Structures are given as C-alpha cells and as structure tokens.
Amino acid sequence: MIDRERWLQVFTHAVLILGVLIVAFPIYVTFVASTQALRDIMQVPMPMLPGGHLLENYLQAITGGATSAGNSPVGIMLFNSMVMALGITFGKITISMLAAFAIVYFRFPWRMLFFWMIFITLMLPVEVRILPTYKVVSDLGMLDTYAGLTIPLIASATATFLFRQFFLTIPAELFDAARIDGAGPFSFFKDILFPLSRTNIAALFVILFIFGWNQYLWPLLITTQENMYTILIGINRMLTVGDDQAEWQIIMATTMLAMIPPVFVVVVMQRLFVKGLIETEK
Q1: Could you tell me if residue 17 is inside a domain?
Q2: Domain count, the chain
Q3: Alpha-carbon separation of residue 152 from 50, 127, 157, 162, 163 (angstroms)
Q4: Domain that holds residue 257
C-alpha cells in the first residue's frame, strides 16, 4: 500500500511538472526572444539561451516603442492600461458593494425587481451593447479619455450578486445591534460590512483587474490617439507591419512587460484570493 501511494505521488507530481513546462515554455521562448537581436531571432532554429540585448531591447520598448507602432512608448501604453484596469476594478467593487448593501439592508418598493434587472444584464455581453454604448460615450465627448475607457465598464452584475449573497450570510441581529448602538447605515457599512468583506474584495480585485487589463475591443473603438493606446492595442499595432519587417525583439519585450502587472497582482494577493473563493464561514 505504501509503495502504491508513493508511485501515485510520483505520477501526480510528474503530470504537474509536465503541465507547468507546457505552460511555461512559450513564456520562456518569449523572454529569450526579447533578449536577442532581430537577426538572431530570424535564425532557424532560434537560439534557446538568453542573449545580450536585454537592457537595450527593454529600454527601447519602454522609451521609444517599435517603429511599426508609430514609435509610441510602451511606458505610456502600460500606464493607460494600468489606469483602465484600476479604474474598472475599483469602480466595479464600489458600485457593486453599494448596490448589494442597498438591496439587502434597505426596504423599498420593487427592490428585488431591480436586483433581477441587474442580474439579467449578465445575458447581455459587451459585444451586444457596444454600439449604443459607443454612441453615448461619443455624444458625451469621452472619446480618447480615461473616463471613456473606464466608466462604461464599471457596472458588474456578477460582483453585485456575489456581494449580495455574502451580505445575506451576515446575521440580521448584527445590523440591529449596530442601530441600537446609534450607528447609521453608512457607519454600519464602513465599520462592519467592509472589514468583513475583505477576502471577497481581494478575490474580486484579482479577477476584475485581469478583466480590465485584458480589455481589447472597447479601447480599440474609442481610442484614436497614440497617447491613449493600451498595451494590447500597442502589441497588435506592432504586428501589423505590412511589407515591413516586424521588430520581434521589441514585440517580445513588450509582451513580457504586459505580463508583469497581472502576474504581480496574482502573486501578491494569492493568499487572499484563494481564501476569498473557498472561505464559507465569515
């Protein structure tokens, strides 16, 4: 029995290691290409060891960008993506928490109707409502602005639903006790509900940040100026070179830079993220 369990552990670890290698190999190739000169990348086969142009390629990407992308610095694109991702994340969490708080703790006519109206919006993906949304944003003069990048995407039926379900697990006696002690609705929300929701907020923060960071279609529609491009649009522009030669070393360096913020968020908030997904007793 012991030998069988030992072989089972060896097999499961081998499968896990194989899976990690399969996932990590394209990332490793991307990193290697970002440290090579263009002539080395175009060799067949391409060298599989890092080259000596790492600082040169990354500095050129951050400060100058690729010629095919109009020399728009990747640093500006990263900043635009960061503003968009953080704006969407904090906007969704704030609005969803307040909406769930109102639905659970306030008694007003048709509150459940409003909740189900919010929930039904899950059936309407961005692609379905993108044209009327673009029309509204255009009429309000929010094209090529950070407000136009973030505000149309800050509503979240999923986050509202998750916060509502969590608030329903909090005993009603806690709310009554807070009222007896003289705490108003905002004080109860700020001093009790918000701290209790910490793990839920962390889990949603990771998910929503990656969602905002990976947005492509919406920024593509409403941005026309190079200084408002996000990082995904910048990478796509670097690839569309026509008859010219793509600057693969800059493209790969930009790709590696684009992976750093979401990976950093996942690594830093990993413990709270997992706890917020699996914790049932608050």
Answers
A1: no
A2: 1
A3: 42, 13, 13, 21, 21
A4: 74-278
Write the single-letter amino acid at 24: A
**C-alpha distance from residue 216 to each of 46, 223, 235 (Å):** 30, 11, 11
Query: How many CB atoms are located within 10 Å of the residue 165 CB?
Result: 12
Q: Number of helices (H) and strands (E), helices first, in the chain?
A: 16, 0
d(C-alpha 251, C-alpha 235), whole Å:
7
Short-list 231, 221, 99, 197, CA closest to 155? 99
| Residue 108 neighbours by CB under 8 Å, 6+ apart | none
CB 41, CB 33: distance < 8 Å: yes
CATH of the domain at 81: 1.10.3720.10
Residue 177 lies in a domain: yes
Question: The whole model's pTM is what?
Answer: 0.85
Q: Give the largest Cα separation in the chain, rounded.
A: 76
Helix, strand, coil abundance in the chain, percent, nearest 5:
75, 0, 25
In a domain, residue 214? The reply is yes
Radius of gyration, CA atoms only, the chain: 24
Question: Does residue 88 contact residue 154 with C-beta atoms inside 8 Å?
Answer: yes
What would the two tokens of residue 23 be?
A: 């996932």
Compute mean pLDDT per 10 residues along the chain, 282 residues long, and list them: 72 90 91 88 83 86 68 84 94 91 84 83 78 89 90 86 86 81 81 86 90 90 88 86 76 90 89 66 46
Residue 209 has which token pair?
Answer: 């940040």
DSSP state, 156? -
Cα angle 235, 236, 240; round to 5: 120
Sign of the alpha-carbon torsion through 244, 73, 217, 269: positive
